[in-house]
Design goal:
alpha/beta; Molybdenum Cofactor Biosythetic Enzyme, Chain A; Molybdopterin biosynthesis moea protein, domain 2; 6-stranded mixed sheet; 16 helices; 33 strands; flat
Length: 665
């Protein structure tokens, strides 16, 4: 019996036939195909994941059903039956070709060759195969017998094809290796069975040869192993890093050059926060502001041509109200700031420029006022659209939404906002020595994992969704399992530890050997953070996944996350200038230099005067050991210090250098 794959496959079956569409009981091949799928010995499926429909031989209806099964139902495989012949109504291949992104002619050829074993008329079948997104689409002939023959060819390869489309690289590689080993074993068995006398005469050689074969328990262990990394051969590890040592500027540029913004999504800012998000397109005002002529002051709406003098008060309009009165000569209507200016009025006189002449006996109404100064036409009136005109561009694509931008959106009633999606960032710590930070007391040679807590908090404070990937043991299989899971939901994966020169530092090997990731760099000339690594992984129909392998020392992880991870996440989120801000500062003390360029934690003291030439003063936070997270406490910046040289051993107090700010963008 065939070995059944653990993968669950969602399958759509489409019978394409005018006859079956009119009389569904005439459909024999469709139900038979559903039966074959449900009883497969090569993959799992269940009745809820098998969809069957009948459509007529109409190109548009076939296209629409293929798109529905692929785009809405997210089927892994769509199998059609019927409509592949030469008659004028046989349009299945044409309709299918229109929806495919890529063709898979090898499948169609294999089906044709199988059918030719039964009938020469098989050459008249025009079925096509290919991919739409992550869906495989295959045309089968319309007869039940042909469906049997063709499905026998498809069945063994469907699960493997689906895994490739889903980007399950590790499983695909493992199956390739298994197939190669199986082929080798069959060849080996055939070789020995074909030479029985040679085995008899050379029994010593035969036993010696098999003395190096694996035992059944070893074979079982190999079958359960996920990773292709041979972590047992520690003596083969390099004594010096094989990766070139690059500068920080080169590393940052490499990261940002590898990243493009995620696609846009529309967010309802009435129900979800868009603060800090980046607009993906311009925002155009669909209504003017103000939408009516509005009073700038509390006072009286008048006719400017009536000049100064007495006015009879005929109505009152407060903000939010309207007046039905059309203002006549030598009359006034009392108005409030922001309220509408009544018809007939062309000026507003502030209350300070008037005098009350007459009121009602109970003082509840003003009857007559005197305008003390002649008003000018348009005085203290905001015309319609004077703040924002109808059709005006109020926010540019690429703008970051802050409180003021959100207020502008509110003022024009724009609730649906096009913004770049935010990357989901998975954070994991690697190491057999680690334990969860909060809870039980320390035991043995364990230490608490602080890196994950720090990085999750840092990323969250910048507004990025995070996933806690936990602690991953220093085993290649464990890394493979964790990365496979993380890839499904995360656009960025950050690990700490496992990237240096230790015998259990396996992250880079797993990424390249098991995931075929592109490793862009693995050594940076900086302190702290020399072994920082960056890789990208291509995934079908998705943005590439970014991997950051940060050093395990807490300060190294903190510094490199600020240098590389935060800018990369910002670029994914649509920032046009994603790097951290850098300013000039003056050293408050002498600071010794390191052989490598250093990112030295510091606090900043800002000048209180108004002298534009006065720079903030930087003070070291003390010991800069990469294990000492206390050096980051209350740090407001990272001093960017040059490497030590024979002529430059330290920087004196008062020296001006650059500082990357941690407290602001």
């Amino acid at each position: 019996m065939a070995s059944i794959s653990s993968i669950q496959i969602k399958i759509g079956v489409i019978t394409i036939s005018d006859t079956a569409y009119k009389s569904p009981h005439a459909d024999k091949s469709g139900p038979h195909l559903v039966h074959l799928v449900s009883k497969s010995q090569y993959f799992h499926t269940n009745p809820d994941n098998i969809f069957q429909v009948i459509v007529p031989d109409e190109t548009q209806m076939i296209e629409e059903q293929l798109k529905t099964f692929s785009d809405a139902f997210h089927c892994d495989v769509i199998l059609t039956t019927g409509g592949t012949g030469f008659t004028p109504r046989d349009v299945t291949p044409e309709a299918t070709s229109r929806v495919l992104d890529r063709r898979a002619d090898g499948l169609s050829t294999a089906l044709l060759l199988k059918s030719l074993e039964s009938t020469p008329y098989a050459v008249l079948s025009r079925g096509v195969s290919g991919m739409r997104g992550q869906t495989l689409i295959v045309n089968l002939p319309g007869s039940q017998k042909a469906v049997d023959e063709c499905f026998a060819v498809l069945e063994p390869v469907l699960a493997h094809a689906v895994k490739q489309l889903q980007g399950r690289i590790v499983e695909v590689k493992a199956e390739h290796v298994e197939m190669q080993q199986s082929a080798h074993s069959r060849h080996h068995l055939h070789h020995h069975q074909s030479e029985p006398q040679q085995q008899h005469h050379h029994g010593h050689h035969h036993r010696h040869h098999h003395g190096h074969s694996t035992s059944p328990s070893q074979q079982l262990q190999q079958a359960l192993t996920k990773s292709l990394v041979n972590e047992a051969q520690i003596a083969n590890r390099p004594r010096q890093s094989p990766y070139p040592l690059i500068s920080v500027d080169e590393a940052v540029s490499t990261v940002l050059d590898s990243v493009t913004p995620l696609p846009a999504e529309t967010v309802n800012c009435a129900t979800a926060s868009v603060l800090g998000r980046i607009l993906a397109s311009d925002v155009i005002a669909k209504e003017p502001l103000p939408p009516f002529r509005a009073s700038v002051k509390d006072g009286y709406a008048v006719r400017a041509r009536d000049g100064a003098g007495r006015r009879r008060v005929v109505d009152v309009v407060t903000a939010g109200d309207e007046s039905s009165v059309v203002l006549q000569a030598h009359c006034a209507i009392r108005v409030s700031t922001g309220g509408p200016v009544p018809s007939g009025a062309d000026a507003v006189v502030q209350v300070e420029d008037t005098k009350l002449i007459e009121s009602s006996p109970d003082l509840t109404k003003e009857l007559v006022i005197e305008v003390l100064k002649p008003p000018a036409e348009g005085q203290d009136i905001r015309p319609v659209g004077s703040d924002i005109a109808l059709g005006a561009k109020v926010l540019d694509a690429g703008a970051k939404i802050g409180p003021c931008e959100l207020g502008i959106l509110a003022s024009i009633g724009c609730s649906l906002v096009p913004v770049h999606k935010l990357p989901t960032v998975g954070v994991a710590s690697t190491g057999n020595e680690l334990m969860e930070p909060f809870g039980a007391g320390l035991g043995g040679a364990k230490i608490r994992d602080s890196n994950r807590t720090t990085l999750l908090a840092m990323l969250s404070s910048h507004g990025f969704p995070v996933v806690d990937l936990g602690i991953i043991p220093d085993k290649a299989d464990c890394l493979v399992t964790a990365f496979e899971k993380a890839i499904k939901t995360c656009q960025v994966i950050v690990t700490t530890g496992g990237v240096s020169m230790g015998e259990r530092d396996l992250v880079k090997q797993v990424l390249t050997a098991d995931f075929n990731a592109t490793l862009h760099f693995a050594q940076v000339r900086m302190k702290p953070g020399k072994p920082t690594s960056f890789a990208t992984l291509s995934v079908a129909n998705r943005h590439p996944v970014l991997f950051f392998g940060l050093p395990g020392n807490p300060v190294s992880a903190f510094v490199t996350a600020n240098l590389y991870v935060i800018p990369a996440c910002r670029r994914l989120g649509g920032w046009s200038a994603p790097r951290r801000s850098v300013i000039n500062v003056k050293l408050g003390q002498e600071i010794g230099l390191d052989p490598r360029p250093e990112y030295h934690r510091c606090t900043l003291q800002w000048p209180s005067g108004i002298d534009a030439d006065v720079l903030p003063t930087a003070w070291s936070t003390g010991s800069q050991a990469s294990s000492r997270l206390l050096s980051c406490q209350s740090a407001s910046g990272l001093l960017i210090l040059p490497a030590r040289s024979d002529s430059l051993l330290s920087l004196p107090a008062g020296h001006v250098t650059q500082c990357m700010l941690l407290d602001c963008p």
